[in-house]
Design goal:
This protein is α+β, with helices and mostly antiparallel strands and 206 residues long. It is 66% helix and 13% strand.
Length: 206
Amino acid sequence: MTRNFRVPRAWFDWLTLGRSIAIIALVVGVYAWYAWSTYRHGGKDAMTGVVMLGPVVALVVAAPLIAFVFEYVGWVEERTWAPWQGIYHAFDDHQIRVTEARDLLWFSSADVHAVLGLSPRPGRLKALCVSECRIDEELGVVLSNAGLVALFGRSTDRKTIRLIAWAERDVARPWRNRRADVKVAYAMRSLQDASKSSAASIVDRT
């Protein structure tokens, strides 16, 4: 029965960019020096050993190169998806990032304005109260449902009206229902634990 050999992930974690470059430079440098020295002192006939060492050198150089490629691809992927880490919902095939804070849902102002094809107006945003607009560390300016209504509630644009209704019906309301279910389940468990503790204490007294 044969077993497939797999390179441990720790090897690639150890091979950082700096170490990879150092290893490649050292191996290639030593091999080039050895090949030149062999050719200089032994001529073409002595180059057989150098040629045979070629695959070994290529294998040693390949490991740091593979590690570098993995690190670069991971970095590119992380940078590409970094703005979309967390919760987001689709509206008309556009992603709107959402975060939870202060027992409310908050929608990314930049995403909402981009979907509506509008530019944010700092003056109007500053006029909103703290329960309608705030600054999030990751998303920047965010708006609650009340903030969406306060900012766009008077608009007659159909898309804007649909977005406000969507934010409440499809995002905020299900979120509140899930939170309520969790609170009810937690309260029921607390009551059950309390009743078990009371029953145990009564048994101990008897």
